[in-house]
# Entry
Amino acid sequence: MEKLYYGFKDNIKVEVFDSYEGLSRAAAAFIAERMKKKPDIILGLATGSSPVGVYDELTRMYEAGDLDFSAVRSFNLDEYYPLEPENDQSYRYFMNKNLFDRVNIDKANTRVPNGMAEDIELECEEYDAAIAAAGGADIQVLGIGGNGHIGFNEPDGFFTAETHKVALTENTIKANARFFASEEEVPRFAVTMGMGAIMSAKSIVLVANGGAKAQAIASMLTGGVDPLCPASILQLHPDVNVFIDKAAAELL
Ligand code: F6R
# Structure
């Protein structure tokens, strides 16, 4: 694992790696170190392709006897709406497959927004209340969309603080169509944590790889705080740790 660059601003560290494996191992090591210090850690988790390597590495550490998830609690960023948790494209299904079913976490301690909630506003309120009652996440894992979205907080004229239902942009529907049989099957809505819950996390771990993320990474870090690049709000967070590969860093 070759680390190519380190440091950025006092509150934001950027580490650039030669490979996806390298950035995934480093991000997992960051999380593992915190987990060892605080076994009942609260993890904010993301889905998508970016954190899969992190979850693989955390699983490997668990299998090696180095990590214990028995007291860990988690809150996921988002879920499609409407979509059943059993659907193999749901984010609940993704989390079970990529992490929860592979380690000794108690699934009762894992939360993903309910994509089938009848009263979606109540679901959102309860989700925020549960995160607040837990004191916020210790670490929030994030990927980033090519358009700068985090969670499903899409570019807009303003930031939304609360967990809320969103209409997905054409850009995101197209980007996610690869996971569905056809673009038509991609749900048109999602429930996402808002910026309040994300920013309440004590530390942020953001992972990204590939040239398609280069513009978003550059805007996030150097473009000023602007809701047209939702991830740029992280410039106001006290502890952001960015793990990226060379291609994602090419516009820095
Ligand atoms: C997923 C999520 C999204 C993704 C982003 C990048 O829970 O919240 O914001 O992190 O769309 O997706 P990938 O990693 O698939 O490129």
User: Anything to note?
Assistant: Residues 69 and 104 are 5 Å apart (CA to CA).
